[in-house]
Amino acid sequence: QVQLVESPGGSVLAGGSLRLSCVASGNTYRRYCMAWFRQAPGKGREGVATIDSNGSTMYADSVKGRFTISKDNAKNTLYLQMNSLKPEDTAMYYCAAVLFPACPGTKEYEFTYWGQGTQVTVSS
Fold first, then answer.
1. Rounded mean pLDDT of the chain?
2. By the number of CB atoms within 10 A of the CB, which of 17, 91, 98, 121 ranks highest?
3. Are 25 and 77 in contact (CB under 8 A)?
4. Is the pLDDT of residue 118 over 70?
């Protein structure tokens, strides 16, 4: 069992930056694929970025070059550094995990554990 707790998001102007954190419980953290998803009002939940147990990363095309996913195994913490934010990045952001060393993909159903979500608002 894994519990995921996200840090508060925030509100920024377009072009600004935010860093999200997600602390995971459990001593098998290193064996998990971790991910960030987001859900905008009226839209489905989409995968933003994933990081596997070896640290290999994948990004959605919409955030490539602007967002960076990383993790600190010693702190059981997942991060999402978001730069050059756009109004279309406004959404509820969720961290997610699945007990599998390689990330299966970026579909919601592929992940077992979820954080409570944190709101990110980007204004123009």
1. 94
2. 91
3. no
4. yes
Max Cα–Cα distance, the chain, nearest Å:
42
Residue in this structure with the two tokens 């998001």, named with its chain if needed: 9
Interatomic CA distance for residues 44 and 31, integer angstroms: 28
CA 89, 35, 25 angle in degrees (round to 5)? 125
> How far, in whole angstroms, is CA 93 from its chain's centroid?
7
Residue at token pair 């970026």: 106
Extract the runs of DSSP E, i.e. beta strands, from the chain: 4-6, 10-13, 18-24, 33-39, 45-51, 57-59, 67-72, 77-82, 91-98, 113-114, 118-123
Q: Would you say residue 26 has pLDDT above 80?
A: no
DSSP 3-state percent helix, strand, coil across the chain (nearest 5): 10, 50, 45
Contacts of 56 (CB under 8 A, 6+ apart): 103
pLDDT at res. 27: 64
